[in-house]
Predict the structure of NAD(P)-dependent iron-only hydrogenase catalytic subunit.
Amino acid sequence: VCPTAALTEMYHTDKVWEALSDPDKHVVVQTAPAIRVALGELFGMEAGTIVTGKMVTALKRMGFDAVFDTDFGADLTIMEEASEFIYRLENNKTLPMLTSCCPAWVKFIEHQFPELLEIPSTCKSPHIMFGTIAKTYYAEKNNLDPDNIVVVSIMPCIAKKAEAARPELTKDKRNNVDIVITTRELGAMIKEAGIEFDHLPDSEFDRPLGETTGASVIFGTTGGVAEAAVRTAYEWITGEKLKGEDVVFKQLRGATGLKKATVEIGDKEINIGIASGLGNARTLLEEIREGKSKYEIIEIMACPGGCIGGGGQPYHHGNDEIVRKRQEAIYREDKNKKLRKSHENLEVLKLYEEYLGKPFGEKAHKLLHTHYEERERI
Ligand code: SF4
């Protein structure tokens, strides 16, 4: 179920089929990092089986015009979030900076801690950043009318359905993401289409919004966003390269619900708090409210274990072993990637060069950042 308990499950697969059957629509799909390590479970595979290539083939056979990766949006998020963090650190602005990828947690702070709304990063979440770029840069590059592009997000998450409809996240009254479906809904669609998933060959994501790095893959698990941000902030602040397995910050890893760690970046010690599950988030937020927080960065994910344990994933009925296997698969996928830092993603760099300008600059800010609002206490 949704961790906010505010949403019940609604299937939106009919909307996706409708878009796919409309010859006037250009339908692009993006898949979140946590999907690829869980989707196979719906087809009898063991938890933690990585099915990225089969998933891409299935989506192409279902008729999507382009199959892209939310990981591209995650790399873009790190370009913005690491820039925002360094800006705040070097200009004595508000710290800690809280990550903002998880809409259930964003809603939680808006309702429960409205006095802290200056603290979260203003970055939109990766799939919303992706949708924004699909309807601007990608539309212009391919001479497409943004009104004819339908962006479908496949997410491990039910809260992302409500996030896509937030008025702050629309542009010119147009949704950046049109339809959100979960891992379970994708599984149902693949079965409905009569595709024998386990027999599919592998395919690659389309370009240019399909290049990704290991840093973006680890967004799928608790601690991953903080680790990805640290990889980039470390190199940008020190000017030194993290080589080989030095990119792995073990102190930020694991499935524990509340982690506290210190990372040395040059002559600075950066204290990082990581919470998964809203009870643990409350603990860190109360420390901030009481002026006792020692952190420079805090990552919060509403679901225990992060998105791998999300409410839209194949049911795991509280079986920690399943979540652990998905997490190990995420770390394996990171290790297998040629590029492991977001700022090395060449297609993201090209996007800045051709369209956005500087990370955290004026145009990037306009397109990729958002704001938060106090909501009625519940
Ligand atoms: Fe959604 Fe991930 Fe947040 Fe869970 S942790 S609510 S799956 S974004």
User: Anything to note?
Assistant: The chain is about 40% helix and 15% strand. The domain at 13-368 is CATH 3.40.50.1780 (Rossmann fold). The chain has a mean pLDDT of 95. Residues 3, 102, 104, 156-157, 159-160, 301-303, 306-307, 310 surround iron/sulfur cluster (CB under 6 Å).
